[in-house]
Amino acid sequence: MRKNQYQHQQIALVTGSSSGIGFETSLHLAQNGIYTYASLRNLSKSNEILGYAKKDNLPLQILHLDVTDKDSTSEAVDKIIAEKGRIDILVNNAGYLLLGPLEQLQINEIKEEFETNFFGMIRLIQQVLPVMRKQGYGRIINISSLAGRIGFPLSSAYVSSKFALEGLVESLRYEVQPFGIQVCLIEPGVVKTNFINNIKLGKSVVTSINDSGNNNDSSPYTEIIQKRISAFKPRFEIGSSVGEVADMVLEAVTSESPKARYLVGEDALKMMEKRKSTTDEEFARIVMNSVLGKNN
Ligand SMILES: NC(=O)c1ccc[n+]([C@@H]2O[C@H](COP(=O)([O-])OP(=O)(O)OC[C@H]3O[C@@H](n4cnc5c(N)ncnc54)[C@H](OP(=O)(O)O)[C@@H]3O)[C@@H](O)[C@H]2O)c1
Question: Is the pTM of this model over 0.90?
């Protein structure tokens, strides 16, 4: 069993464990001896992860948790404390991509994006901090993105939620390090998950695409939207594996001196290298070619 400096079995809480990165990370932590609460907002999706956990007799328990619901987050944390008396690791993972040009996104759609990707993470951080502070130990691992470092067309809501997370973590680190709490960002490039199937298109964006055959009311963004959507699928087919992200989370959890940021995937590493060596104008061309295909 993996122990912290107090020689307890470590206790982890992961959000968004129904699929993708959260699913794999929950199993990976449990496979490494960490008692893992794999949380889902929809418990009817728990059979697959429970099947793996039972087959290998892993220390993993399912928990209901919707990150947009204050009561749900506090009930989940209270249950863990009642059962285990501590929380050593929080993996803030739940999130989705709202796609569309900013002009066509509704404010309530952008607020919903932030409710999950940003305020959802804050809710959990605020719930676990008093516990970790009393323990004098904690690791808070936040799944950001390459999109937390650079912007992409038609992703302004998602990108800004991840940029906000990056700023939050960069500031929070100073506040909590004196209490033995480390806060990290995981920044994957494209990862093969259900993410692509769970993309939300803004309502007005859907309407404008549907109207694109109608000459009277065609959207000025239709062409770029269609290029972006058709360029998505091939990019996801060659993305990193969830295992690479889960390995990086484990590295952040177990390292004696965890880094502030962990980039994951060749695509993310290459883009950040290019970002450092190009002007804004040169880099904008690289981004356009990368996400819309050549000759965009
Ligand atoms: N895949 C990528 O290319 C990529 C790249 C960089 C960063 N990321 C980040 O990685 C994280 C995980 O994404 P993924 O790729 O694993 O996608 P995914 O397969 O779509 O998984 C997303 C998870 O988040 C959950 N979720 C969404 N809203 C929630 C809420 N309100 N409360 C609790 N859970 C909620 C989903 O639950 P349901 O099943 O109930 O919907 C699902 O379990 C996200 O933060 C994403 O921004 C992904």
Answer: yes
